[in-house]
Write a structure and sequence with these properties.
The complex is a heterodimer of chains A (357) and B (296). Chain A is mainly alpha-helical. Chain A has 14 helices and six strands. In chain A, strands 1-2 form a two-stranded antiparallel ribbon. The radius of gyration of chain B is 19 Å and the shape is globular. Classes of the chains: A mainly alpha (357), B mainly alpha (296).
C-alpha cells in the first residue's frame, strides 16, 4: 500500500478514534466544536493550496467564506410568499427549487431549497473569485496582500451595513440542510454524531482532491510557479491561468465551508467576515508548514478546536498574532516541514541552524 | 445640493484627508528606508491617541500629547529592534505577515489595557459646539488645529530630510542602501530611526484628530488601509503626493456619504484602492521608481 493511502487511513482512523473516545468518556458535547473545526479546516486546506503551493497570499478568505454562508442563509430564510405571483417565483417553483416550511408562528415560509441555495452560493463565489482573482493575482508582495485584505474588508463592511443581511446581528434561524433523506446538516443535538462524520468526511474528500491535484501536472506546474515564477513562465507554463484556477478553487472550498457551517450553526454573523478570521486562517497555514496540506489540517484541527472551546480566553486573537510572528521570525518556511527533523538534529549537533535565517 | 453644503462636505473631506495623509507619510518613511510596508502603521496612530487620552488625566494637554508621541516612538523602536533588525534580507511575504502579527499584538494589548471603550481628547480650543464661520461654511476650530499641526509636521519633515545629517543619511539609504553603507552610514540604525519617526508622526496624528474621530482599540486597521490607499494613490514612497492624494480620498469619501449610506463609506475608499492597484499601481502622480528617489 502506498504511503499516500496510509496517511489517509491514519487520518480517518483518528477521526473515528476521537468520536469513540468522546463516546467512551461521555463527552459527546466536544463533537460540536470538532464539527465546526472540520468546516474551518476545509477552508484552511483550500487556502494552504493557494499559499503553499501556488505561492499567493490571501488575506481575504473570510470574505469568500461569508459570501457562501450569507447566500445560503439568505436564500433559505428569505420568505418569497409576498412575491408568489411573480414570474421568477413560478419558474423556480416549477424547477423544484423552492419549498414551503412552517415558521415559528405557524405560518408558511416559501424559501429556496438548501441544495439550490448551496449551489448558488458556490457558483456566485466562484464567479466573484474569478472576477477578483484576475486582476488581483497580477499583483505581488505588498500589493497582493493589501488587495486581498481590502477585498475582505469590503465584504465585511457590506454584510455589516446591509439591513437585508441582518446588519450587526447577521442571519439566524437558518434551517438544516438535508443532503439525502435522513442525512441532515444541522445543529440538532440528536444528529451530532452524524454531523461530525459528515463534516470530517467532507474534509477527507477535499484532502483527496487536493492531494491528487498536487501530484498531477497542475501540482508540478504550481510548484514551479512557487519556486520561480518568471522561470516557470519562460518554460511555457501558463502561470496566470494556474494561479487563477487555484484561487477560484480555494475560494470555493471556503464558500462550501461557509455554507455548511451556516446550516450547522443555524446562522451566520458579520464576525465571520472579519479581517481577524482571514489572518487566523493564514496563521494556521503558516504554522502547518505552508506547503504541507497534512500539517495545515492537523494544526487547524488543534488550534481551531482549542479556540472554539475557549481555551485561549480573551487572548484568542493575540494567540494567533503571536503564532504568526514567532513562526515567521524563526521558521519562515512553516513549522511542520520535511526538513524539521534534520534542522533539530543540526541544532543539537551544535552547529548553527539554517531555519532561522 | 446647495453651494454651502458643498463646501461643508469639502471641509469634512479635507479633515479626514489630512489624517489619511499623515498615516500615508508614516507608511512612506518606512517603505523608503526598508522597502517594506508596515501593516502596523494604523496601530501607531491608535496607540498615540489612546496614550494621550490616558496621560491627559494627569498632565496638561500639550505635555500629554508630547509624552504620548515619545512613548509611541519608543514602542516603534522596540518593535523594530525586537522583530525586524536582526532579520537577514527577509522576503516581502515574511515582512507582511510579521507586521500583521505585530498589529494584532498591539491591538490586543490595547484591548486589555484600555478596554473596548471609545475615547477622545477634549477639543484643543472651545468645545464640540464651537465653530468658526468662513463664508457660508462652519468650521470647528479643531479642524484648523488638525490641518495646521499636520502642515507644520510635513514642513518639519521636509526640513529634516533636506538639511539635517540623519535625514540625509536616511535618504541616502533609500536611494542606494549598499552605496550608503560604503560611505559609512549605519543602515540598520536608519531603519530603526524610520520606525521611530513614523511611530511619532502616527502618534501625533492620532492625538490631534481624536477629538473629531474618537479612538478605540481597533481603529488602527481602518486607518492603515486608508493610509495605504493614499500612499498608493500618491505613488508609494512619495510623501508630497500623499498629501494631495489624502485630500482627494477624504473629499471623495465625504461626498460618497451624500450618495450612499454611511455604512458603506469604507467600501468606497477600498474600492478606490483596488481600482488603482488594478489599473495604475504606480499611483496617479507618476512613476513609482522616480518617486522613490525624489524628495520626501
Amino acid at each position: 500500500m502506498r504511503p499516500k493511502h496510509l496517511q489517509m487511513i491514519g487520518f480517518l482512523g483518528l477521526v473515528v478514534a476521537i468520536q469513540l473516545v468522546t463516546r467512551a468518556t461521555d463527552s459527546a458535547y466536544h463533537l460540536t466544536q470538532l464539527t465546526m473545526t472540520a468546516y474551518y479546516s476545509l477552508l484552511v486546506i483550500g487556502l494552504c493550496m493557494l499559499i503553499g503551493y501556488a505561492g499567493q497570499i490571501s488575506l481575504g478568505h473570510a470574505g469568500f467564506f461569508s459570501i457562501g454562508g450569507y447566500i445560503a442563509a439568505y436564500l433559505t430564510t428569505h420568505d418569497l410568499s409576498a412575491h408568489k405571483g411573480a414570474a421568477f417565483v413560478a419558474l423556480f417553483a416549477k424547477a423544484g427549487l423552492l419549498r414551503t416550511r412552517p415558521d415559528l408562528y405557524g405560518g408558511d415560509l416559501l424559501t429556496v431549497q438548501p441544495w439550490a441555495a448551496c449551489l448558488a452560493a458556490l457558483a456566485v463565489t466562484a464567479v466573484v473569485a474569478y472576477l477578483v482573482g484576475g486582476p488581483v493575482l497580477k499583483l505581488r508582495g505588498h500589493y497582493l496582500a493589501m488587495a486581498t485584505l481590502g477585498f475582505g474588508i469590503i465584504i465585511y463592511r457590506i454584510v455589516l451595513g446591509t439591513t437585508a443581511l441582518g446588519a450587526a446581528d447577521g442571519i439566524s434561524d437558518v434551517p438544516g440542510f438535508s443532503l439525502l433523506p435522513g442525512i441532515e446538516v444541522s445543529g440538532n443535538s440528536s444528529l451530532r454524531v452524524m454531523n461530525y462524520y459528515i463534516a470530517w468526511g467532507l474534509v477527507a474528500a477535499g484532502m483527496v482532491l487536493l492531494l491528487n491535484l498536487i501530484h498531477s501536472r497542475v501540482g508540478r506546474a504550481l510548484a514551479s510557479i512557487h519556486g520561480a515564477e518568471d522561470a516557470a513562465d519562460a518554460m511555457g507554463i501558463p502561470t496566470a491561468r494556474y494561479k487563477l484556477k487555484t484561487f477560484v478553487l480555494s475560494a470555493v472550498f471556503a464558500a462550501l465551508a461557509g455554507v455548511m457551517l451556516t446550516h450547522y450553526n443555524g446562522g451566520i454573523g458579520p464576525s465571520e467576515a472579519s479581517v481577524m478570521k482571514s489572518v487566523r486562517y493564514v496563521a494556521i497555514v503558516a504554522i502547518g508548514g505552508m506547503a504541507n496540506l497534512w500539517g495545515a489540517l492537523f494544526m487547524s484541527l488543534g488550534l481551531n478546536y482549542l479556540s472554539l472551546r475557549g481555551y485561549f480566553g480573551t487572548y484568542d486573537d493575540a494567540v494567533f498574532g503571536g503564532i504568526l510572528i514567532v513562526i515567521m521570525l524563526f521558521a519562515p518556511d512553516g513549522l511542520l516541514r520535511k526538513q524539521l527533523l534534520s534542522d533539530v538534529r543540526r541544532l543539537f549537533a551544535g552547529r548553527t541552524a539554517g531555519g532561522g535565517a | 445640493m446647495n453651494i454651502d453644503l458643498f463646501f461643508q462636505y469639502i471641509v469634512a473631506g479635507l479633515t479626514y484627508g489630512t489624517i489619511y495623509a499623515v498615516v500615508a507619510i508614516g507608511f512612506n518613511i518606512i517603505y523608503n528606508a526598508t522597502g517594506i510596508i508596515n501593516f502596523a502603521q494604523g496601530e501607531f496612530v491608535m496607540l498615540g491617541g489612546m496614550t494621550a487620552v490616558t496621560l491627559h488625566q494627569i498632565l496638561p494637554l500639550p505635555l500629554a500629547i508630547l509624552a504620548a508621541v515619545i512613548i509611541t516612538m519608543a514602542v516603534g523602536a522596540l518593535i523594530e529592534i525586537l522583530f525586524i533588525r536582526w532579520l537577514d534580507r527577509p522576503s516581502v511575504l515574511r515582512m507582511v505577515i510579521i507586521t500583521i502579527g505585530i498589529s494584532i499584538l498591539i491591538r490586543e494589548a490595547s484591548l486589555h489595557i484600555w478596554g473596548e471603550g471609545v475615547r477622545a481628547l477634549p477639543y484643543f480650543t472651545g468645545s464640540s459646539e464651537t465653530s468658526i464661520r468662513l463664508g457660508g461654511v462652519f468650521v470647528s476650530p479643531q479642524v484648523l488645529w488638525v490641518v495646521g499641526i499636520s502642515a507644520v509636521m510635513v514642513i518639519l519633515l521636509n526640513v529634516f530630510f533636506t538639511y539635517t545629517l540623519p535625514g540625509r543619511q536616511m535618504r541616502a539609504c533609500s536611494a542606494n542602501r549598499d552605496a550608503a553603507r560604503l560611505c559609512g552610514i549605519n543602515a540598520k540604525n536608519m531603519v530603526t530611526l524610520s520606525f521611530v519617526l513614523s511611530a511619532g508622526i502616527g502618534a501625533l496624528g492620532g492625538s490631534i484628530v481624536s477629538p473629531i474621530t474618537y479612538v478605540q482599540y481597533d481603529s488602527g486597521t481602518q486607518l492603515a488601509i486608508k493610509g495605504f490607499t493614499v500612499a498608493i494613490l500618491g505613488g508609494l514612497g512619495n510623501s508630497a503626493a500623499a498629501v494631495g492624494a489624502g485630500m482627494i480620498l477624504g473629499v471623495l469619501e465625504s461626498f460618497s456619504i451624500a450618495v450612499l449610506p454611511a455604512a458603506y463609506k469604507d467600501v468606497i475608499s477600498i474600492a478606490i484602492l483596488l481600482l488603482i492597484l488594478f489599473v495604475r499601481p504606480s499611483g496617479i502622480f507618476g512613476s513609482s521608481e522616480a518617486a522613490r528617489l525624489s524628495e520626501f
